[in-house]
Amino acid sequence: MDEISVTSRIFSACNFSIRHQNMDGGIPAVGVVDGSGCWTSAAVLETLVSKPIFTPDVDVVTKLVNFLLNEQNKSPKKLLGSWGLTAGSKQGSTLATSHAIISLAKSASFPGFNIPVNAAIQSAKQWLLSVQNQDGGWGVEPLVGDAGSESRMVSTFIALKALGACNETVGTSRAARMGVNWVYSVYSTEGGFKAASKANVDPCSTARACLAIDAVGAMHERPNLLSEVINYITISKPSEELWYLSQESYVPDGAAGQIFFHQNTTAELLLFLAKNKLCPAYQLELVKWFRKNQNDDGSWYLGANDIKHFDTIMWSTADAILSLQSFLASWDFSYTPERVTKEYRSNNKVLVLVGIVAIIEFLLIIGLPSLVINVVSDSWRKLPEDFKVSSIWAFVLGVFASIVAVGIATVISRLFKRNK
User: Fold this and answer.
1) Beta pairing class for 307-309 and 302-304
2) What are phi and psi of 57, to 5 degrees?
3) 240 DSSP assignment
4) CA distance to 312, 373, 374, 385, 387, per residue, from 381 (Å)
5) For 254-273, what is each residue's pLDDT tens digit?
6) How far apart are CA 166 and CA 180, in angstroms?
7) pLDDT band at 55, cuts 50/70/90?
8) What pTM was computed for the model?
9) Per-residue buried b or exposed e for 286-317, using 16+ beta carbons within 10 Å of the residue's own CB
10) What DSSP element (H or E) covers 417?
C-alpha cells in the first residue's frame, strides 16, 4: 500500500458523490435514487472542503452550500436555524444541523467560494444550544417526544464537533462543558463508552466519544483515557476479524415502526485511530477493508467484515472518505508489514543476545568463586568463614543479576511489540 493508492481511492469516491448530486444541489439521502438529504449533503460537502486532496469545481461546492442555505428552517421559531434530515423536513435534526455547521464553517475558506455563511452558522448554533438537554447531551430530534430528545452518543458527539467547528471549547463554553460531562457519564469501567445511558458499551460509540471530547479541547483532562480506550478496543476486537457494526433503535412518537441508526464502526474507528496516530496495525486492517470493499463506481456500502447494507451508500461513502483523508494525512508510509516483521526479528535477536550475556554473567559470577575454591583448597571446610560468606553472596548476586537482565530484556521486547 502506498500514498498514491489511498489517494486514488479518495478521488474515485469524491467523483462518485459529485456524479450523484441532484438537480437541487443536494446529495441523495441514503441510496443513489433518493431525494436530497441535508445530513448527507453536509457530510459530502465536508469531504470536499476539509482537506484539498481532491479539489472539486467551485460550482459543485456552491450548489451544495446553496442547497443547505435554502433548506435551513426559517420558521416556526422553535425550528429557526435548524435542518431536518431530508429536504423539506420540518423536524429539527441534531445530526443534520451539526453536520451543516461543520461543513459550512469549513467551506468558508474554500478557494473561490464567496457566499456568506456566518449568519446561517450562528443561527444553527443558537438552535443547538436551545435544544441541549439538562443532562448535557443532545437527542437526535429534540422536539419529537421522549425518544427524540433522549441524549445519545450519535447526536451528542456530532453536536460537540459542531461547537468545536465554531471554536467553542470546554474552557469557553458552558454547553461544551455540559456535553463533555454527559459523554463522561456514559463511560464504562470496561474502558469504552455507551451509545446511551442504558445501552451497552460498543467500539463505535467509544471512538465517537473520544472524537467529541477532543473536538472541544477536553482530551487533556483525563491523561489515561486513550490508553484505557485502546485496551477496550483491543479486547473487543474479534479474532481474525474487524469490529462488527451495531445499531440503535429510535421510535418517534406516533410512528408506525422503528427507525434504526446504523453505526459506521469501520469508518469511525479508522478516523479516531488515524487522528490520534494510534494502533498502526489496526489502521492497516481497516484501510485494507476499504480497499477490498470499494465498489467499481468508487462508493462504499455501509459494512464491516463480510456484512454489507446495500440500501446505504451515500453517507457511508462520505464517512469512508473522511476517515481515509485522516489516515492519509497522518500515516507514515514507510511503515509496512515487511518493516514490522524485520523489527520484530531484530528485537528478538536483541532479546536472545541479552539472555546469552545474562547466562555468561551468571556462570562467571558463580563459577569463579567455585574455581578459586577448588584451586586454593582441598575442601570447603578448610576455607575461612569470611570467604564462605563472600561466595554465598556472590551466588545470590549472580542469580539476582541474571533475573534482572532477562526481565529487562523481556519488558523491552513486549513494550516494543505493543508500540508497533
Assistant:
1) antiparallel
2) -65, 140
3) T
4) 87, 11, 12, 9, 11
5) 554 556 677 899 999 999 99
6) 16
7) confident
8) 0.79
9) bbebbeebbeeebbbbbbbeeebbeebbbbbb
10) helix 385-419
